[in-house]
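Q: How do we represent a protein-ligand complex in a form that can be generated token by token?
A: Start from the inputs.
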Amino acid sequence: MPQMNLVQAINSGLRGAMRENDDVLVMGEDVGRLGGVFRVTQGLQEEFGAERVIDTPLSESGIIGTAIGMALHGMRPVSEIQFADFIYPGFDQLVSEAAKYRYRTRGEFHVPLVVRTPYGGGIRGGQYHSQSPEALFIHTAGLKVVCPSNPYDAKGLLLEAIRDDDPVLFFEPKRVYRAVKMDVPEEPYSIPLSEAKIVRAGEQVTCVAWGAMLYEAFSAAEEVAKQGIDVEVVDLRTLWPLDLETLVTSVEKTGRLVVVHEAPQTCGFGGELVALVTERAFLHLEAPPRRVTGWDTPFPQTHEQEYLPLAHRIIPALVETARY
Amino acid sequence: MPQMNLVQAINSGLRGAMRENDDVLVMGEDVGRLGGVFRVTQGLQEEFGAERVIDTPLSESGIIGTAIGMALHGMRPVSEIQFADFIYPGFDQLVSEAAKYRYRTRGEFHVPLVVRTPYGGGIRGGQYHSQSPEALFIHTAGLKVVCPSNPYDAKGLLLEAIRDDDPVLFFEPKRVYRAVKMDVPEEPYSIPLSEAKIVRAGEQVTCVAWGAMLYEAFSAAEEVAKQGIDVEVVDLRTLWPLDLETLVTSVEKTGRLVVVHEAPQTCGFGGELVALVTERAFLHLEAPPRRVTGWDTPFPQTHEQEYLPLAHRIIPALVETARY
Amino acid sequence: MHIIREDGSLDPSLDPGLSIDRVVSLYKAMIRTRVVDDQLERLQRQGRIAFHVGSLGEEAAIIGSAAALRDQDWIVPCYREVGALLWRDYPLQRYVDHMFGNADDPVVGRQMPDHTFSREHRYLSVSAPIGTQLPHAVGLAWAAKKRGLGECVGVFFGDGATSSNDFHSAMNFAAVYQTPTVFLCRNNGYAISLPTARQTATRTLAEKAGAYGMPALRVDGNDVLAVWQAVREAAKRAYDGGGPTFVELMTYRLGGHSTSDDPRIYRSKEEVESWRRADPLVRLRKHLEQRDVWDHDLEADWRAACKAELKECVRRAEEKPAPELREMFTDVYKDQPRHLAEQESRCLGGPRAAEEEDHD
Amino acid sequence: MHIIREDGSLDPSLDPGLSIDRVVSLYKAMIRTRVVDDQLERLQRQGRIAFHVGSLGEEAAIIGSAAALRDQDWIVPCYREVGALLWRDYPLQRYVDHMFGNADDPVVGRQMPDHTFSREHRYLSVSAPIGTQLPHAVGLAWAAKKRGLGECVGVFFGDGATSSNDFHSAMNFAAVYQTPTVFLCRNNGYAISLPTARQTATRTLAEKAGAYGMPALRVDGNDVLAVWQAVREAAKRAYDGGGPTFVELMTYRLGGHSTSDDPRIYRSKEEVESWRRADPLVRLRKHLEQRDVWDHDLEADWRAACKAELKECVRRAEEKPAPELREMFTDVYKDQPRHLAEQESRCLGGPRAAEEEDHD
Ligand SMILES: Cc1ncc(C[n+]2csc(CCOP(=O)(O)OP(=O)(O)O)c2C)c(N)n1
Ligand SMILES: Cc1ncc(C[n+]2csc(CCOP(=O)(O)OP(=O)(O)O)c2C)c(N)n1
Ligand SMILES: [Mg+2]
Ligand SMILES: [Mg+2]
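Then emit the structure tokens for the protein with magnesium ion bound:
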């Protein structure tokens, strides 16, 4: 089986989806001729032509808004937003239109749209090339939000997202793009949405993460294992709709929860997860749920490594939570 | 002292601010000649002229974006967005620019901008005239978010917001616009931001609300009092930066928390409040914190009264929490 | 551009040659829309419906445009164009049920009144945010082109919408990709209280098309034949692979912006009066009478028939129950996720709001 | 419009009559910018700075525009215009400190390199999102007008930015309110990989101004005198209450979009070569040599001086420490709120990231 990094796996997923369904097309800034600024769509225009791999003008509202129109006609556009930080000009189309079209037409129309976008820190991108805006979309009823952590999941979840009949935000951890390689089948396959994965079984603390921070949570778990603290690490994979069962079951077992994400803490998805678990597993909780997140500031550049909730910040949170 | 409803109090606040400072101006769709679709700016253009009470073209990005430019020059624009549901075309300017300008210039430039907008349900407005998007802005570092519940607070908080040197989102509960009248001084006065108010002292459950739902929380508290349940009702007034001390102190006393808001539950501000209180008052909690909120659907029309977290839904939450 | 002159006579050089029956059917549709508007406004004032946004004075622009498109073409509405939907034989009862948000409302009370849609009639969904429908119309047309279908898309919007973000991206994408889209700009003089002259510094809205390299037409939107002619020309260009066209329909909003508006605050009686004289119905009626196909009795009978039809629909609509509460929790996604199933049962199993809570 | 011909000779009929010293100073500023660009690109390739976005080939458009504005006028940058800031005597050391994000960086490492600003020099802050600065430039000019100051505002942006939402609202507001704004559109042929010809269906970008009722000028952006002339004319109109002007500066991005880009993937050597022959520096140098105010030695000395100056700044910048960690937590608001004070002490009191975590 070929080894692929995240960029190659997503590229392979797009290729597979476009081969199996003529209604699938890719559009965005610099996705065609250049193959995307991260080269995720490299080679697609050669294979599928400029009619299906479309270089668009510089307008996120156009990229998302016209894709909604194509989706209403029955096509399955995959729009790329060059950086998640630049999704805001298309925000109105996502929250006012894509998210509500099925509801406001009682299902007569729906929007099978996927919006792919690289998110998060790790490339010294400063405040406009590092953001993690997932919470804004999770708060918007009608959208699904996916965030894979590894190449295998990324390809399977992307194919599933493209087949899904509702709009899906697909956040790609740019920090992982070329950092991890693993076996990924050439042919299309799919991984169901809304299924979390326990990537490390443990008894004492549940640590939830996704995307790039999953690796930090994992290495922190390995680290504290040396101190005899046994951490269960959960990779959410799909952020919304959430696989709450897996999460609650884990916390019912461990009685302790640490949530990790890059986005600022306040009103981030971590707060929602803490609230949900506290509501449902209150009597099982032996320590206050903890959040290890980006600080409540814009994303900095020089000190990026101290802004991100990396292992060095997760470790003490796990220890304190375990020892509470 | 004159009696004013919410519309009159805000109008009086704007008038006072414009009289005491020539740099204050009002701009937005239909705010001048018409006096606003809710008549909040009625009479201002007559007094201050079309140069300071500006009818703008139909562009929220223009209304907010050009106001940021004026604020960078040292003026104090107050932009009106006709309904909070229509703020999204201006979202990029708020989160990418207004929120980050001070940080990214180390304070050399700042944006003293107030964005006023009616929010929430209660006028049969359906999904595009009823939204409560406060969480999106609370999640954005660099913005302040205010939401008054009554005419007196509204005028004082508005004047303070206009004097504040940072961008402030000022959410007005349209459901309350003409529903409440109270004594409001003619002359300007101000109420500090980030100070919550305990509107009903109680011992057994802390109930947090703001804006229109404060009345529902209050009447629910009065109702359960008849069953001998003593509820403390907190009006946050400023949502962010938060007066966490008042909240935590109250929960340390009561050991129980119920949060009420109109926005959908998932990733709403309620989740953040539950997480914060659980993190800080864990050992005082005698029951799982509860959220009574809008459902995770777009805002409906016919069944608006069942979508909103009105007293009939708050009462059982208070009772169950108290009896837990 | 005029085809029917003020006095009702036809400029023979411009006559698009519609059969007289067709012209009569246009007139009858315009009258029907007018009658429906009048009645719904009454119902709103009586508090029997929550809201109405009408098309008083814009019937020629709306129905003339709809008539110039073919059945396979899509209509993407703003919110004043139910006349175009009715022209496509959308059942009046369904529309009235929607206005009451009752159990037979196609959107089961999830939207405000006048937020219609119908896949069967190739009519997308009205949404309140201004301009958001424009990129949809471009994408829809783009998809039709990619799929090799002969469809074109007519999209309605107002003068105010030309200032919206989405207008800019839609116009640009349509021109760059040459999508078969017809931009139907109802320049009715106002965006709520803002006159078009202060919405933009250009003299006309048609000029805006130039910024995108798109051809434009500008016609008297109160002259149904001129509207039909211009829109047909634009649609032809679209079918023939000639790409998009911007059509400015010069008209006037004779009524308030909606039932929530009081236009007397921002415009003069005289201005409105002068436009009443240009009422598209009056002019077309003159024309039909000159051609001896219409008279006072036919007018009276038709208006009575339209009114009776509506009243019967209203009677039925008011007898129907409200939509079931569980309708609030479906169609957020194709399959209801667990969290919504839970919320639904919590809601259905919980107490109901006190009646007086109901701000009707 | 040309003023300096290909061969370096001046078209006397168009000569704006700048003193020869002034023209020389323009040339020297252009060379200095070019040298700084070259050196910073090297530093980035050596991994000593994280990123650089240069102005190779666009120096005439940038410095000619800056020179045509007065000291009291504001410059609102896109991200390639540090040459304009240096023209206003912004200290080179400060810029280099910023490029290294060290303790003396005016923004203390909170932004990527090349995100400069300076109130002292009336130069707003660079931000990455395309187009967002345009409404600021309109609001800034609007405020200056309301306050009765004679200021005007020049705002830089690229061809790609003309497709942005904010371009549309900024152009419309500027024209409706007649703000003293000069729109400086650097049409450098590309938006990263997208050629201007596929960014829009119009032949020129200047045509877009018509959609807003705004006058436009279109000049050879590689001819510093033509740029100066056009921008001065636009600025004059602004001072005289004539409102905004759109100026299209026809130029070419000789380098990559930024140090992260590889332009060979999307454009041909031949195309680039043909534009190298139109290098604004070469043309202006020819002109100065014809006027006997410049020669090989002066050129060599000046380039050497610029290089030495930069190298000294780099030496100093590299000696300086990183900004203090606590700088991460200030200036989110004027006064630090309690939650940020808490986060600051948690961060400062906590462990540090392992060095290898540092993706430098
Ligand atoms: C984005 C947005 N901003 C504001 C509003 C409030 N609003 C509703 S209709 C309207 C005026 C629209 O005018 P125009 O486009 O000319 O259409 P018309 O009503 O005249 O047919 C406004 C400002 C809205 N619906 N959407
Ligand atoms: C809203 C937004 N979308 C996408 C990007 C990514 N991006 C950065 S520069 C650029 C191209 C800009 O081209 P142009 O406006 O012509 O300026 P130039 O770089 O040519 O000077 C793009 C797409 C961005 N910065 N902001
Ligand atoms: Mg209008
Ligand atoms: Mg460019």
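The first helix of chain C runs from residue 20 to 45. The mean pLDDT of chain C is 96.
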